[in-house]
Amino acid sequence: MGKIGTRAGVAALALLSLAVSSCASGKATGGGDGAGAAAGGDGVKTGPGVSATTITVSALTDLTGPYASFGKSLTQAQQLYFDQVNAAGGVCGRKYELIVRDHGYDTQKAVAAYTEVAPKSAAIPQFIGSPMITALKQRIDGDKLLTIPMAWATTLLGSRAIQVTGTTYDVDMINAVEFLAKEKGITSGDKIGHLYFEGDYGESSLNGSKYAADKLGLQIVEQKIKATDQDMSAQVAAFKAAGVKAVLVSVGPRQTASLVGVSLAKGMDVPFVGSNSAYSPQLLPTPAGPALLKDFYYVSAGTPVSAQNPSMQRLVADYQAKYPGETIDSGVPTGWSAAMIVDEAMKKACEAKDLTREGVLTAHRTQSGFGGDFGTPMDFTFFDKPASRSSYVLKPDKAALGGAVVLREAEVSELAKDYPVPVG
């Protein structure tokens, strides 16, 4: 697909990162709340990232790697959210400051970025990449630092500090397989291909597809690739030789474009169903566009930006006003709602007069019905299973805002209801 997002946009975000981080408050106090947590003049206990005037939060994102377009949308939506909260007076008598760090989907860079920003952060409303968060999971938990991953692998479950939003990849794939069986004529004995990234994202997705296939008498034909692989010709040849009747797609947008484009060119005319990270509307103007519009779908717990609800329409209008001409994709509501999750935790923690990390986590874990306008309702009171098991089936649409529309409203498939989700 090529590098997504203009250089100017990335440069602007880099400048924003420097500007915000240069005025970020709080000493680097290390993990947890530290011994210095004390009540300020307003009687509110504070911890790392919280001063008398500011609450510092951090985004560890991807602006230059395989999820550059997603990372840009996420980050801009979150900047918009915090700017609006600040304009309305802030929270708990304090204004938000957002530190942005680009790790380019590189685990080593992500670890270094976390090491830098964690001591001065009250929460992390965006952290892209299952491999990156998995590498830091014990540290994040030990630091009691509320973190919202932009990743949905089951390896991220089981941590009180890490809030996986919506469905996990395996649940989405179970719902996807049942969609294929109900709507696309897949029956017992058929073969289904599954193209997936090595690592947590792909393996978690594969767990779901294999579970559903076993229940329905299907056979999964696996093709595992690296995130750096670009040409899917060999994988298409393998699927075609195996005679698959459909293909599940748990890779990045660039690999999705190659897969569906090559498949159609080679005469493999089958339905494709992607994980939520497999599609980007920036694919539609590429040579893969016709194939995506023909018979590609993807599953997600997130409501598409084309949804006609007042909250989504207001977000879209505000985003377009702040970032005119920028592409609007699923990263916009995803980033916005993740910022809202952190903000709601801060508000509840303020009510309890405890903005320490423990206070923020305790406040967050009391929320049992978050969401609705930007995704399926979520329960945050537990952390050893997905916050939701309900997925939309979405279809690319060139005319739709965000490049996708709802094909099937969010629901929990019969198979997903009783699926024993692995943890950690």
From TrEMBL:
<keyword id="KW-0732">Signal</keyword>
<comment type="similarity">
    <text>Belongs to the leucine-binding protein family.</text>
</comment>
<dbReference type="Pfam" id="PF13458">
    <property type="entry name" value="Peripla_BP_6"/>
</dbReference>
<feature type="domain" description="Leucine-binding protein">
    <location>
        <begin position="54"/>
        <end position="397"/>
    </location>
</feature>
<feature type="signal peptide">
    <location>
        <begin position="1"/>
        <end position="24"/>
    </location>
</feature>
<protein>
    <submittedName>
        <fullName>ABC transporter substrate-binding protein</fullName>
    </submittedName>
</protein>
<dbReference type="InterPro" id="IPR028082">
    <property type="entry name" value="Peripla_BP_I"/>
</dbReference>
<dbReference type="InterPro" id="IPR028081">
    <property type="entry name" value="Leu-bd"/>
</dbReference>
